[in-house]
Amino acid sequence: MEAVMNNVTIEKAKTSKIKDVDFDNLSFGSIYTDHMLVCDYKNGQWQAPKVVPYQPITLDPSSKIFHYGQSIFEGMKAYKDESGSVWLFRPLENFKRLNKSAKRMAMPELPESYFMDGLTTLLHVDSDWIPQNAGSSLYIRPFMFASGNGFHASPADEYKFIICCAPSGSYFSGKVKVLIEKQYSRAANGGVGFAKTGGNYAGQFYPTRLAAEKGYQQVIWTDDNNHEFIEEAGAMNVFVRINDTLLTAPTNDRILDGITRKSILDIAEDEGIKTEIRKVSVKEVVDAAKNGSLKEMFGAGTAAVVSPISAFGYEGVDYDLPELKDSYASLLKKRITDIQYNRAEDKFGWRHEVV
Ligand SMILES: *Cc1c(COP(=O)(O)O)cnc(C)c1O
């Protein structure tokens, strides 16, 4: 049976897997809803998006994704409030960033209506999968890759855009200990660090594994030039609080322009917290840790929202951060999640109802 909604055709799954899901004990991003959105690019244009049952995809071994890594993604969440209404958080920012990543990777840009109508139709079909428990949400993974084939090292002529969803609990449990990286780099000037492309993450796994062997859960990436300035925390933007000022690096072609990052900056300003967007040197952070003015460090991203850092390692020395009762991290996390879950007024106009 096929239905149509928002110009998106819907092919329903014959059976649902939802009965097997324990919504009280959700992990992060490891079970998937009954449906997915698929949109193919061929003959120079995007074909109409379709909602179909979640299923494997078949690709030629010569598909360019396997050889040249044209692959980009986004990460978003859908939130269900107490009355059962469903909300997205600044979804057009994800859409715009997807196309920014696509452009950098020589992939075709997607029309806004395909993204938004496709996503909202998928959320309608799988709305029962959006968890209502505190801290839980539906993690949404839009992604695009080169499905066209050929060993010639050039952009593919066919692509797939897919959205899959995973009901999820919270991402990190507890505070993390991080290592400030002095040898490896995540991104370089003129490179692809600002794009959400798969290779950026593949390149992080090995240094992160080395850090894990030394007892650190994450790596703080520094600039590729002299490893002098801190840039990102794993796959999150990074904030540092020295005394009562909240610092974060300006975005550039090495740093991903996080939606959580910019929302936190706006909320902090609204709270009267002094913020500075500027280069933050490792020396400044180490000195602040030594003289007691370093109060907090945390990562910021959609998955974990805010991920507090308990300690950092640098040049063989570990520096502990204080345990604060009234941390900026917890205040900012509460304010942003209260907006996301429709528990507070949204003076910024960030919430987007899925109707
Ligand atoms: C996705 C991502 C972030 C966070 O972006 P959000 O829009 O806040 O989710 C930060 N850094 C990197 C490297 C990322 O991939």
Automatic annotation (TrEMBL):
It is an enzyme of class 2 (transferase). Acts on leucine, isoleucine and valine. The keyword Chaperone does not apply. This is Branched-chain-amino-acid aminotransferase. It catalyses: L-leucine + 2-oxoglutarate = 4-methyl-2-oxopentanoate + L-glutamate; L-valine + 2-oxoglutarate = 3-methyl-2-oxobutanoate + L-glutamate; L-isoleucine + 2-oxoglutarate = (S)-3-methyl-2-oxopentanoate + L-glutamate. InterPro entries: Aminotrans_IV, Aminotrans_IV_CS, Aminotransferase-like, B_amino_transII, BCAT-like_C, BCAT-like_N, BCAT_family. Belongs to the class-IV pyridoxal-phosphate-dependent aminotransferase family. It comes from Flagellimonas iocasae. One of its GO terms (molecular function) is branched-chain-amino-acid transaminase activity. Pathway: Amino-acid biosynthesis; L-leucine biosynthesis; L-leucine from 3-methyl-2-oxobutanoate: step 4/4; Amino-acid biosynthesis; L-isoleucine biosynthesis; L-isoleucine from 2-oxobutanoate: step 4/4; Amino-acid biosynthesis; L-valine biosynthesis; L-valine from pyruvate: step 4/4. Its cofactor is pyridoxal 5'-phosphate. SUPFAM superfamilies: D-aminoacid aminotransferase-like PLP-dependent enzymes (SSF56752).
